[in-house]
Amino acid sequence: MLRSVFWLIMAGGLASATTAAGQSRPDTLRHAQWQLLWGSEFNTPGDSSVVADHWRFAYPWGHNLGGYEDQYYSGQQVAVDSAGLLHLRARRRAEPRPYAGRQLHYESALLFSTHRRDSLMSAGCPEGSTGFSFGLFEIRCRLPRKEASSSSFWLFGHPDEVDVFEAGSPPEIIGNNIILWSHPYWRPGPLGADKESSQSFYYWPGPGSITDDFHTFALSWQPDEMVYYFDGIAIRHETRYLPLGCPLDVIANLAMMSWSRDRADTYDIDYIRVYTSRQPAPTPPVTPVGPVVGVGRLPRATVAVLGEAGAEMSWQVQEPPGQRPRLALQQNLNPREFNFLALPVRQRWLTPLVAYHDVNSPRHRIASPDGGRSSLSWTVYDLCGQPVLSGQQLPAAGWELAWPTLAPGAYSLRLRMGTCQVRQTMYVLGRPDEVVFTPEWLAPPTQLPAAAND
After folding, report:
1. In this predicted structure, what is the pLDDT of residue 126?
2. Which contiguous run of DSSP H or E holds residue 420?
3. Alpha helices in 216-275 (DSSP H)
4. What is the residue extent of each domain of the chain?
């Protein structure tokens, strides 16, 4: 799998979410809009042979993807128990296994769907494609516990990849990703040499570990939008980076990183389901691009057709009984690359507000708690409690806030709307426009002096 080996770790304490009955919820997954098409419930106990009608147990092109992965995939590490759970297991070998010029230290497990292509495939897709074009893809699973384990559920097929989730290093950090490669019909460019991608990250705010319980991860893929779900809550709406509509195969795998020294780990799966929409799918909003001689880079075909839709986050004031009011995130549209948010817990999405130190920071839309009768006043405080920015807005059904000039750091945002007051943790992130490695940085380390004896 084409992974980004970048796991952003946020420093400092991060707010945890609590639950209150009767509170409004963010956008939720509605299964009534979908019809079950294909899947596995894993209700027959046995070895890999009991699921071989739906799955193969290695990639069609091999048993390892290279890079930092240190496992050899085979069906021997796939098993279904009497409770209806499929286990993808990883076991450290007594002796490494030679494979493709490497020494692999683990035997592990993978599921790769064997579904033939469906009728929704877009024009221009490669002959012999297999998998699904559009639909709802859902898994219920318990993530592996070890720090160097990497579990995932993803879709792959020429020329696109969609990661419904990737977990690992540590398991409390979850990522989802979209990778769009060049294509001779839709996106002319050197095949496999250029790509568009957008990756988002999320952290588990508690209670306990995310590996303690089963969770559901899902992706709704339509021609004009993709929506990622965690435990039924939509955590990402994406309208910029979209697959072409060529069939994608379904994959679940347990990788072990090369720095792992753990003896074993397990990725437990309750079910994997694929649904088709009960409504006719809209026409893909893309137009094929004819071959161009000398094209050296992948054009932003998707963005050119759909428009450069900016990042936007919609918030709503919630007042749990006996607790102070909080801002709950309702929608996360077209997040910035490496966006980092808390995951929803118990049907509520309470996460610090995240902005960026530039003009492309997400637009934060806050709904009025009283139907637009009150005005809004806001103040941003630094870590010492000193005000650094403030402003006011007239009564409205909602307000849009942005702080593109605010320096990167941690802040507290105070909102006043009539009799309602809200305090919200806010992080402003910043990245350099260009990274230049100095000669001192690139120089080999100097020999450290030996430690003196006590």
Report:
1. 76
2. strand 420-429
3. none
4. 31-289+297-306, 312-429
CA angle (449 as vertex; 446, 454 as ends), nearest 5: 155
- Asked if 164 contacts 217 with a C-beta cutoff of 8 angstroms, the reply is yes
Tell me yes or no: is domain 312-429 CATH 2.60.40. Answer: yes
Distance from chain centroid for Cα 410: 24
**Encoding tokens for residue 28?**
């939720």
Q: Which two tokens stand for residue 181?
A: 């490669």
Question: Which amino acid does the sequence have at 272?
Answer: I
Tokens standing for 188?
């002319």
Sheet with 339-342, strands from edge to edge, namely: 55-56, 110-113, 249-256, 149-157, 160-167, 173-181, 195-203, 339-342
Amino acid at 173: I
Q: Which pairing describes strands 264-277 and 86-99: parallel, antiparallel, or unpaired?
A: antiparallel
397, two tokens:
């059904």
Alpha-carbon gap, residue 416 to 58, rounded angstroms: 56
Question: Cα dist. 22→19, 330, 369, 413 in Å?
Answer: 9, 16, 16, 26
31-289+297-306 carries CATH number 3.30.70.1070: no
102, two tokens = 């490497």
Rounded Cα distance, 194 and 298, in Å: 6
Peptide bond into 288 cis (omega under 30): no
- Written as six digits, the tokens of 395 are 């009564």
Tell me: cis bond preceding 207? Omega within 30 of 0 counts.
Answer: yes
pLDDT tens per residue, range 110-167: 999 999 877 677 777 777 889 999 999 999 999 999 999 999 999 999 789 999 999 9
> Which residues 6+ apart lie within 8 Å of 251 measured at CB?
1, 110, 111, 112, 113, 152, 153, 154, 155, 156
What's the CA gap between 276 and 302, in Å, rounded? 23
